[in-house]
Amino acid sequence: MVKTMDRETLREKMESGEDLLLLEVLGEASYRQGHLPGAVRYESMEQVRRLAPEKNALIVAYCSNFN
């Protein structure tokens, strides 16, 4: 199921230590310029399956930083 999440909700989840997978979906150069703490750059669905093996895992994909 795909849902949207606003910045404040994401911030609250990150600050509370909720278990989630943050995926930066922009290119490598963008990722190197800056990304959310703990985020990984999306490379493949295999990577996602490896990093979040639980079917009900919270996966947050974003395409820009939240400064």
UniProtKB/TrEMBL annotation:
Domain Rhodanese: from-to ranges: 16-63
Q: Which residues form the signal peptide?
A: none
List residues traversing the bilayer.
none
Give the Pfam families listed for this entry: Rhodanese (PF00581)
What SUPFAM superfamilies does its record include?
A: Rhodanese/Cell cycle control phosphatase (SSF52821)
By its UniProt entry, which InterPro entries does this protein fall under? Rhodanese-like_dom, Rhodanese-like_dom_sf
Protein known as: Rhodanese domain-containing protein
Species of origin: Rubrobacter xylanophilus
